[in-house]
Amino acid sequence: MHHNVRPVKTAIIGCGDISDIYFENLIHRFSIIDLVKCASKGGISAQVKSEKYGIQNSTVEDIMADPEIELIVNLTPAPAHYTLIHQALQSGKHVYTEKVITPEAENAKELIELAKSKNLYLCSAPDHFLGSAWQHARDMIDRGMLGTVTSVYACVSQDMNVFADRLAFINEPAGGIGFDFGIYLITEMVGLLGPVKEVCGIVETMYPNRIHKQITHPHFGESYTYVNEDMMMGSLKFASGAIGTIHLNGNSILSAPPQFLIYGTEGVLSLPNPGLFSGEMKLFRPGSFEPIEQISAFGFPHNSRGVGVAEMAWALRQNRTARTDVQLGSHCLEVLQGLQISSQTRQFYTLQSSCTRPEPLESGYRGMQTFAFDEEGAIV
Predict the structure, then answer these.
(1) Which of 64, 110, 177, 250 sits at 20 to 30 Å (Cα–Cα) from 201?
(2) pLDDT band for position 292 (50/70/90)?
(3) Is residue 57 domain-shared with residue 162, that is, in the same domain?
(4) Which candidate, 267, 254, 296, places its Cα nearest to that of 279?
């Protein structure tokens, strides 16, 4: 850490399964973060994480009252987001939250105004668009390697039976395949191509009546009602003029490979699973049916969750806008809700919000051990 830059004292609230990678990365990967406390609703999971990672086990109230803690990383389920973020902002804390900001766009607007009135940073996941594959794609687009980008297509299949039996939040607000996973696709599209103007969608719960099939589930064999969307298909018109398509099928299988394709007048780029930071990238050029494998020169491969928190902390210290600023997250949330509204009204939905296309990262910061720059330098 540069001697003139003071690390940002940080606390994690919410210590479920997803928290482990945040603990690992925020402790070991980013010098700008000083992770000091954690808390959870019942306190048991926070106790486990505190012992595992050497972090002080605390309570939400103590974290809110601690004047030294500047930044809260909110990893609670989506239905708890509004109350916790509101409390944190009222307590004078900057907040980075797991996706989505809130299940409701109106609540998100209220939080944005509160953060603005208190001159606090409010940012949100997913931060995958900062990963090596997506920054490589952004660089190719910006340098004209694909010509003019005319369309983008993303397709993911899942089995909501499997997820709903293992993860309780899947059957809570914002737990469906669109709001829980579609947010990755939308954020990456906006990170690459900029804001969306209008959308048209079909969003359905094809199988609301389900049965718990996991033998270890406490209600094994019992029927239940699945309340979230298990299908989301949509068309997006970007302000740039490009057209996008998303295909999210929650009534299929997990093992089918996701697809993410960017189509340009001079080439087509195939990207990895939208839920990953890096992976196989192939470029198709005019006149050749053999794709060219792409090797990224950007940092943050593998599971780099938390890079958005660190980038936010650097933005805070440098008094600049964070790349994961809430304007990006709230715009992507409105895209998802716009698809829902379009499906209900059988009409196109015009976006009320917009956002700035996030600034790209510099290449060359790959986090290699020898003769290379530390990847954290890319977000400084």
Answers:
(1) 110
(2) very high
(3) no
(4) 296
> Where do the H-state alpha helices sit in 246-325?
307-318
DSSP string, 147-191: SSEEEEEEEEE-BHHHHHHH-GGGGSTT-SIIIIIIHHHHHHHHH
SS3 209: strand
Assessment of whether the complete model's pTM goes beyond 0.85? yes
Quick one: which of 328, 373, 360, 358 has its CA closest to 140? 360
Q: CATH no. for residue 234?
A: 3.30.360.10
CB atoms within 10 A of CB 122: 28
Bridge partners for 224 per DSSP: 210
Do 249 and 196 fall into the same domain? yes
What would the two tokens of residue 34 be?
């000083």
45 or 169, which is more confident: 45
Q: What tokens appear for 295 in the block?
A: 């090797």
Is the domain of 138 the same as that of 202? yes
Residues 19-71: pLDDT tens digits? 999 999 999 999 999 999 999 998 899 999 999 999 999 999 999 999 999 99
